[in-house]
Design goal:
With 341 residues, this protein is mostly helical. The chain contains 18 helices and 2 strands.
Length: 341
């Protein structure tokens, strides 16, 4: 989300909204009289006519903000920013934030993102556009676009926005509220729990939550979520033991979940398999990996673990079997990508 370094994971989607935008240069005489000759001479500006059949300086500023928000590496970005700040002064970022909020209220989350992004370029430390940007990105990936890359990029952008928000404005409770959900959606249960603990701590101290937000309902929501997270947190802790090399401790933590509502969760069996094979228990590990594969049948990583076991056991039949399966899965993935393109 660091626009200043040109790292921009969602511009290829947002810039599409500016297709068809007309550009023209303003008359030198006007630029001279308006004191803009040093900023905009020879610079094409985005033009559009408002509902009154006019084009005001505010309209130009908002169009420029759209262009920058869609492509943060736009050629005339610096000139556009200088113009926006000259027109709006210290109210430049608040003006764009308000415009973004209006767009979000109508469900146009991509356009909202564009205004919030330009506001953040002008004032990177501003709390409101950062918070609303995270929410607008969330609105984008929840709006029904089924393209996997689109959803993934906007999820990553939203997550990063809320992470930065909690770092820059640690007193602001709603940053923790939405960041907790972002972690939950990634299966990061420990992070979600710790983040929501911070939400409950700060929500008690904070006088402002947000328009339309009911403090008591938000607290009840998170308390319910935390209660439901108790067992997933233990499971993730067990997986982390295994990742860090504490194999037996991880097995002891996870084995109590092998029967019950988590028994169909493939990572449970996968990590148990990793732990057992690391302890030299190849036959037990094989059973765990096969169970994991039952619940995640196209999982190449699991099949590769099985191939390693069969290599150790010198079982050429199963080595060939799972090697062929991996080839088929990869081929199917390639075909899906080709069909999408």
């Amino acid at each position: 989300m660091n626009f200043s370094k040109g790292e921009d994971r969602i511009s290829k989607y947002l810039s599409m909204l500016n297709r068809g935008m007309l550009f023209d240069e303003l008359d030198d005489a006007y630029l001279e009289s308006a004191g803009l000759i040093d900023i905009l001479k020879g610079v094409p500006i985005p033009i559009s006519i408002n509902e009154n059949g006019e084009m005001t300086t505010a309209d130009i500023a908002l169009n420029m903000a759209r262009i920058i928000g869609g492509d943060t590496n736009f050629t005339y970005k610096n000139q556009y920013l200088e113009y926006i700040k000259k027109i709006a002064g210290e109210e430049a970022a608040p003006m764009l934030t308000a415009e973004g909020a209006k767009s979000a209220d109508t469900g146009n989350y991509e356009l909202a993102c564009m205004y919030f992004r330009t506001a953040l370029i002008i004032d990177p430390a501003a709390k409101e556009p950062l918070y609303l940007y995270g929410r607008a990105c969330k609105g984008c990936y929840e709006a029904g676009n089924e393209e996997e890359e689109y959803v993934g990029r906007f999820k990553a952008e939203s997550l990063e926005a809320f992470e930065i928000l909690t770092i820059m404005h640690p007193e602001f409770s709603m940053g923790y509220y939405f960041l907790g959900y972002a972690y939950l959606n990634l299966g990061l249960y420990i992070k979600a729990k710790l983040t929501w603990d911070e939400f409950l701590k700060h929500v008690e101290e904070e006088s402002y939550i947000g328009q339309g937000d009911d403090v008591e309902e938000l607290k009840k929501d998170i308390l319910r979520r935390l209660e439901n997270l108790e067992e997933p947190v233990v499971i993730e802790t067990g997986c982390n033991f295994i990742i860090s090399g504490e194999f037996q401790r991880g097995i002891d933590t996870l084995k109590k979940f092998c029967k019950g509502k988590y028994e169909n969760w493939w990572p449970l069996w996968y990590y148990l398999g990793v732990a057992e094979v690391s302890l030299g228990n190849h036959t037990v590990a094989e059973k765990h990996f096969k169970k994991a594969l039952k619940f995640s049948p196209s999982n190449i990583e699991i099949m590769q673990e099985l191939i390693e076991i069969y290599t150790y056991l010198e079982d050429t039949t199963n080595i060939e079997k799972y090697t062929k399966k991996i080839h088929i899965v990869r081929k199917n993935l390639e075909n899906e990508i080709c069909e999408k393109n």
